[in-house]
Amino acid sequence: MSLTTLPPAPVRPAASPAPRDRFIDLLRVFGMVLVVLQHWTMPVLVYANGRLTTGNALVGIPLITWVTQVMPLVFFAGGAANAISWRSAASHRSPGLWTARRLRRLAWPVLPLVFVWLPLPYVLDALGMPSQPVEVAARTVGQLLWFLAVYLVAVLATPYMARVRASRALPVLAAGAVLMDVIRFSGLEAAGYLNVVFVWLAVHQVGFLYAEGRLAWLTGRRAAGLAVAGFGMVAGLVAAGPYPASMIGMPGMVSNMAPPSACMLALFAGQLGLAMLLRPALDTLAGRPKVNALLAVLAPRMMTIYLWHMTALVIVAGIAIFGFGLETPEVGSFTWWGQVPLRLAALVTVLLALAGLFGRFEEPTGAAAAGRVVAAAVLIGGALTALMVTGFVPGVVPVVASLALVAGLRLAAADQPSWRSASAMIS
What we know:
Layout: H1 22-41, E1 43-48, E2 51-56, H2 65-68, H3 71-91, H4 95-107, H5 110-117, H6 120-126, H7 131-143, H8 146-161, H9 166-185, H10 195-211, H11 220-240, H12 263-277, H13 279-286, H14 289-298, H15 302-324, H16 334-358, H17 373-390, H18 396-411, H19 419-424
Antiparallel strand pairs: 1-2
């Protein structure tokens, strides 16, 4: 199966159209693809005595994460896309519907994941699979939902943050991130989780500046200077401590990502400068017919690809470990490098099959309704957060969270789509 054999992307509703920005589309696609590749290459899996242990292949090379940790760019691109879409909705005098539509677009692709993973651990247990590896897989798949939970906050904040001057909002958000780090590293670890709001909303807000054309000056030497300053600041923060060199979580170390630290803002500055420096070349690249066609195929399916890429890893790793008795070779060895192309080929094949099957969920059925959007946001946000924490490990919480997700989607829909109509889309 190739990208071109996937079914055509769902037709977007004609209401409140937003113009496309190829640079932003390219950043979103590139960012998500890099996230997927990083997640696929990191795991070091060893199975013995009924237990699966997981290591991280990037432990010895933390500097590579300064490039591969692109979630700051993903939130920046999301902020630009939300600002462009919001401006279009506001011009049509439909701000309430905009929020409802974005909520449904965000949560609807999770439905098939719930339909598959809620019963899957029970099925695997009935088939005789060891419980601990199944639990690891079920938790890992659910952890991916952190991005949707945080992005939901950014979506809800968009109508309000769009009215605030960035020159006022950004210093407040950045200062809040630094303050939370001071409190966190003084001993109150829980304070660091407030940076989920301060850090990611700050990055999201810079996307607003781009959408308004206020980053047009950031070219050439200015962009290069920002890149050098940003990465230099990361190096300084790492050298001074307590920030680790890795921009992803590592076993037994302080994490720059969970919760996000102020170091992520410095990393974003470096990545933004580099992206804006390369923007003319990227615009030219995106304008090529083949690249534009690839973006047209991938961009409408990026949420599906993100949500299902760890399921693809579970399938491939499960077959390799339990079907063929294979384990991860020593990282960096000749055997490890030799397996990388084969492993990626298998993972891409499985992911394309999953994307072809579930890609239709990128676009919700029916129309959105604005009247119950607050209740819908509470239910959907709570459901995503609960599933992020517990995953799909057998228990009451995943079931209740899944029902809350469906209820939230029903509240945000004008035609009240039923569970039956949602499940019918899978078949």
